[in-house]
Write a structure and sequence with these properties.
Elements: H1 3-18, H2 43-49, H3 57-60, H4 62-66, H5 78-90, H6 95-102, H7 104-108, H8 152-156, E1 192-194, E2 210-212, H9 219-226, E3 227-229, E4 232-235, E5 238-241, E6 244-247, E7 250-255, E8 257-260, H10 261-266, H11 269-272, H12 296-300, H13 334-349, H14 356-373, E9 376-385, E10 389-398, E11 413-421, E12 427-431, E13 434-435, E14 440-441, E15 449-450, E16 452-458, E17 463-465, E18 482-486, E19 522-530, E20 538-547, H15 551-563, H16 569-573, H17 586-596, E21 603-612
Helix pairs in contact: 5-15, 5-17, 13-14, 15-17
């Protein structure tokens, strides 16, 4: 083991032994603050990786596509900040666990809770609240702006193994970062890892130390942050799980599975089809990961086909061989909120004149495309018809490589909105009606909502509680230890239905007749419609809607802030800011933005129309 790698291991052991004796450590695993080579700012990468004269650059260059993504704006997201306050209120100090993912530069720089000194305990009193971070919401990718989100070096220094050779974890951002000088280095810094190999005879190598990494091409790499469990806590010399998972009325020995996007994919048909040809390791080109199937990058970092596509101003053109840094997801709402609140200042403060508002629009367009063209299919058929009643079946098919919807569970949902109109185009029946002005979803008797509801296990009455004493929905991210409902649609070839951490709850998906051991990737919902005295023909419209944040979730964040008298941003952090929440608490700021900018307006993912005579 090299001296640098030995140092990492020693620092980790000392931190756990000395720091853990006096305080809870919510992030004991993986690389820790106090790196020999601090993470460089994204600003250091812009000079070579931002658009110049080519018209296609804004759609291909890493900087231009990244700056509008939710990764780059993970610390400007007002929904995150409101949720962070709830988490810290529920479990003091757990914000260290949350901020590790959202601001790697700040966390590894010792500006959250840990200082990087193994013989010192917590010195950033409000670090878990984000009060010790450098920079601001409207600064750009300048040096030491901890509000730049998930930056370049965090991803491009990630290792596939620990310093002792153990495989990297696939959850909770328990990652290992390369922290030693690159082999044959000319800069004296760690390698920047990427999916390419270079041969000077036909490709120009980058003007910085580099190293080919197949890990960056794998879904396991994405799983490092996209499987989330209740944290393992180090306290008084002991490791324990913050919230153990209750399953089928019994407390298990595993942590609460909060998010399982990677595991959902891993237990799908898409993962089963992927393999790597070992002989490709001799290639000087980027190695193809897939011969069939899809990994995470296939959809979320799609290859460009433009003839002059490039990743660097000094690099080679790579048509059809360049994964773009879109990081496309399903969030069409928050990028537009960030644009409205911070966009003008971000562009004014950008030292190189990047089109930041345009990039946020681009991210929004990627999300719309993902939702409306790559996620779901809706079909409708009549199963029975009399003069008095019409019975129909609406089938929703999941086209993605994970559950639909997936990811962060709080407030995120899909639902079916069905409308029936008579010959005069008069609406005479509907299910799943939604009022954009009030953000109220009518909970009719036939409503179908796809979601996961996590709750707190009540041992007295043996129930997973998802509502408080007032009957209001609860979303206690860090306190939840059970799953009351998970009817989200599995991906094709899903073999995880028998896995307690992945199993549907409150619904049974039938076995897939074509794929052994798997369940189907669709759900069929029956509806009964009274058509007595209705003039034919009847036009049926089935619409699948997706929403980032429900009204109940926003109201919950506000209720927790009000009930606990959570302070304003400036009072909490002893600041005099005028941007962001400033003199409001973070939940009130989010509530105001929610009311002003569309109340997280639902996106129609798929629509089907059927005429019944």
């Amino acid at each position: 083991m090299t001296t640098a790698r030995k140092k990492i291991s020693i620092v980790l052991c000392l931190w756990c032994f000395l720091g853990g004796l006096q305080a809870q450590d919510f992030t004991p695993h993986g690389s820790q603050p106090g790196l020999d080579f601090p993470l460089r700012s994204a600003a250091d990468c812009l000079s070579c990786h931002q658009s110049t004269q080519r018209s296609s650059d804004p759609y291909n260059m890493p900087a231009d596509t990244w700056i509008g993504s939710m990764k780059a704006n993970a610390m400007r997201d007002p929904l995150f900040w409101a949720a962070l306050d709830v988490a810290n209120n529920d479990m003091p100090g757990v914000g260290d666990f949350c901020l590790r993912c959202h601001t790697p530069e700040g966390w590894y720089g010792g500006r959250v809770v840990k200082t990087g000194q193994p013989n010192k305990d917590v010195v950033n009193v409000n670090g878990a609240q984000g009060c010790s971070l450098q920079g601001s919401f409207t600064e750009t990718a300048s040096d030491h702006n901890d509000y730049s989100g998930v930056t370049c070096q965090f991803c491009h220094r990630m290792e596939s193994h620990s310093p002792l050779g153990q495989p990297a974890a696939t959850q909770n951002a328990d990652v290992w970062l390369d922290d030693e000088v690159c082999a044959n280095s000319f800069s004296g810094e760690p390698c920047r890892k990427g999916p390419y190999k270079y041969d000077s005879s036909n490709h120009f190598p980058p003007p910085h130390d580099w190293e080919y990494s197949s890990f960056l091409e794998s879904s396991k790499y994405c799983g490092s942050c996209h499987d989330i469990s209740s944290p393992e806590v180090y306290e008084n010399g002991q490791l324990s799980i913050a919230r153990k998972f209750w399953h089928n009325g019994q407390e298990t020995d595993v942590a609460m599975p909060i998010e399982r996007t990677y595991s959902e994919w891993k237990n799908s048909y898409f993962a089963d089809l992927i393999y790597r040809d070992p002989f490709e390791a001799m290639s000087t080109e980027r190695q193809p990961v897939l011969t069939s199937g899809e990994n995470c990058q296939t959809c979320h970092m799609p290859e460009t086909n433009e003839a002059d596509a490039r990743a660097c101003t000094f690099g080679n053109d790579r048509p059809g061989n360049l994964p773009t840094h879109q990081f496309a997801g399903g969030n069409t709402w928050i990028p537009q909120v960030i644009k409205a609140v911070y966009g003008d200042d971000l562009e004014a403060n950008d030292p190189v004149g990047l089109d930041r508002k345009g990039a946020l629009d681009l991210t929004t367009s990627y999300a719309f495309n993902m939702l409306q063209n790559k996620s779901a299919l809706v079909t409708t058929e009549v199963t029975s018809q009399t003069a008095q009643q019409l019975e129909i079946a609406v089938k929703v098919t999941n086209l993605t490589g994970h559950k639909l919807p997936t990811g962060y569970p709080e407030g995120r949902r899909m639902w079916l909105q069905i409308e029936a109109r008579d010959a005069g185009n008069n609406l005479f029946w509907q299910s799943g009606a939604y009022d954009n002005n009030t953000a109220v979803l009518t909970e009719d008797s036939q409503l179908k909502v796809y979601e996961t509801l996590q709750g707190i296990w009540n041992e007295q009455n043996n129930t997973c509680e998802t509502e408080d004493g007032d009957g209001d929905k609860m979303f206690h991210f860090v306190l939840n230890n059970c799953i009351a409902k998970d009817n989200r649609i599995p991906p094709m070839g899903f073999t995880g239905a028998g896995n307690r951490e992945l199993a549907p709850v409150g619904i049974t998906y039938p076995g897939d007749p074509d794929l052994t051991g798997a369940v189907v990737n669709y759900d069929i919902t029956p509806y009964q419609i009274n058509i007595d005295q209705v003039t034919l023909p009847i036009t049926l419209t089935a619409r699948l809607n997706y929403q980032v944040a429900s009204k109940a979730y926003i109201e919950f964040l506000q209720k927790i802030a009000d009930d606990n008298n959570l302070p304003s941003e400036n009072d909490l952090c002893n600041r005099t800011w005028t941007e962001g929440p400033a003199n409001q608490n973070r939940a009130s700021f989010m509530t105001d933005l929610w009311q002003t900018y569309g109340r997280s307006e639902p996106v129609p993912m798929a629509v089907d129309t059927l005429v019944v005579n």
